[in-house]
User: Fold this.
Amino acid sequence: MFRLPLSARAALPNASSSLRAGSRRAYASAPPPAAGAKWAMPLSLAGLAGLGAWYSLGGFGDVKPIATEGKSALNKDEWREFTLKEVKPYNHDSSFFIFELPKGEDSGLSVASAVVFKSDAVKDDKDKPVIRPYTPTSAPDTPGHIDFLIKKYKDGKMTEFVHGMQPGDKLSIKGPIPKFPYKANEFEEIALIAGGSGITPMWQIMQQISADKSDKTKVTLIYSNKSQADILLREEFDALSKKDERFKIVYGLDKKDKGLPADTFEGYVTPEVLSKYLPAPAKADKIKIFVCGPPPQVAAISGGKGAKGSQGELKGLLADAGYQPDQVYKF
Ligand SMILES: Cc1cc2nc3c(=O)[nH]c(=O)nc-3n(C[C@H](O)[C@H](O)[C@H](O)COP(=O)(O)OP(=O)(O)OC[C@H]3O[C@@H](n4cnc5c(N)ncnc54)[C@H](O)[C@@H]3O)c2cc1C
Assistant:
């Protein structure tokens, strides 16, 4: 996998990060509980067909994983069972799930990549085990555990099951499922447009950049949620934007609230929001816009993903604003 020299890694100043002997660093295990979480974009816009498109595996493009230097506990071709070590509630519908890794081993994931969960206890309509992708919130070189922040959906097959798990229970995990192969300084500037639990792949990229002081990439996160209480990883983002000028955080909420940064906007992402915060399309290959969220949001901003996990046509606000397909990546 893509790894930084350990000496180049730096700390995030939050209580959930812990410095390990040998300079390995664990990020974002579990911030203090907040409350609430819903998409800023109405799910009704795209309906369940859209949900299915976001959730379906289909395929993840043609990105190949980068070989790991360390010992990875995961295997991309083999389901392996991992034991749930701890559950840390985050808010009313999202919790951290911390799975144990064998001693001295890490997830070995490349950035950005996901894993897939499977449980024989959860079957789909064709009586096949349900499989869903998740992006760890712990850094790829975190030894001994792998953490996920998972939002529970009412009647959601996998999330109802995972939220019912107890420490000691086991789950099959496979990965990495490679997504976008992030490289330091490939772009001058990137923008991350996320909604709700679509934040986790963005957080993976942000951690990678934060840990590499030689990476000069400027990052703007535009993160939509229904209310302030629904913002996932808020503590991490606020800390990051305070200490590291490479990062700018912009929250979007259904209704503005007290105690939020000045850049918080009300309502959905609009052409005005994009033109205010995004690097201009004229910057060509010096920029990249990443999009991850529920189908209505992705459809409105960039057009939905295509068949079998392909990127699909670039449409929506980004196309209207003049961005080109190769300037945009949909998770
Ligand atoms: C690359 C990637 C990374 C991801 N990472 C994360 C992550 O880190 N954290 C996270 O929380 N999520 C993540 N997700 C989303 C995750 O994969 C699941 O899609 C999500 O957890 C919901 O799964 P589920 O099986 O519980 O819900 P599903 O069973 O798929 O259902 C979702 C919702 O739709 C409703 N629904 C579905 N079908 C029907 C139907 N026929 N009739 C009526 N209602 C229906 C359900 O009631 C439920 O509310 C990621 C997705 C992708 C693509």
Q: What stands out?
A: The chain is about 15% helix and 25% strand. The radius of gyration is 19 Å. The mean pLDDT is 83.
